[in-house]
Amino acid sequence: MKSIRNFAYAAVLTLSALNFAPSLASAQDAAGSFTLTHEVHWQNAIVPAGTYHFEVEPDGPASMLTLRNLSGGKSFMMLVVGTEDSKPKDTSELVMVPRPAGSFVSTLQLPEFGMTLRFAVPSEAHVVARTVASTGTVQTASAAH
């Protein structure tokens, strides 16, 4: 498990080379670009390695993040789970957490736009035990750590 954390830390350091370049498209919408060096889970989507353009659309009751692969691959739309104000001293970064299924994006910090975006990440571990009762029904119990 420690090696997964080390990998995730190394990935975050590698991703510190992200180029969050502000876009001039809209003064209200946050936009820029970054490069993923490996595949990541971003909520329910699996986003392959590549260079992406992003836009945050704050309209409506919840913000939406749009990712567009600059090499012509898939595009993605993510519902932002929560936003917070960021401090000017924060750095622009994509923060990932390790899970058994891979790296999951938890936050996107955009201090040049004064915001930090939060995304859904599964809990660290689920232990699922299934037993078949004498009646033939399946009982499921799960516990999160």
How would you describe what is shown here?
The protein is mostly beta strands. The chain has one domain (2-144). Helix content is 10%, strand content 48%. The chain has one helix spanning 2-15; strands at 30-36, 40-42, 45-47, 50-57, 64-69, 75-79, 82-85, 93-99, 102-110, 115-118, 126-132, 138-144. The chain is globular and about 30 Å long. The two termini are 14 Å apart.
Question: What is the element layout, followed by pairings?
Answer:
Blueprint: H1 2-15, E1 30-36, E2 40-42, E3 45-47, E4 50-57, E5 64-69, E6 75-79, E7 82-85, E8 93-99, E9 102-110, E10 115-118, E11 126-132, E12 138-144
Antiparallel strand pairs: 1-4, 2-3, 4-5, 5-6, 7-10, 8-9, 9-10, 11-12
Q: Nutshell version of this structure?
A:
This protein has 145 residues and is mainly beta.
User: How far apart are the termini?
Assistant: 14 Å
- What proportion strand? over 45%
| Major beta-sheet overview | 4 strands, antiparallel
**Total discrete domains:** 1
Ranges where pLDDT stays below 50 over 5 or more residues in a row are 5-27, 126-145
Average pLDDT, rounded to a whole number, is 75
What's the alpha carbon Rg, rounded to whole Å? 18 Å
Class of secondary structure makeup = mainly beta
Key words describing this protein structure:
four-stranded antiparallel sheet; 12 strands; mainly beta; 1 helix; globular; 10% helix; 145 residues; 48% strand
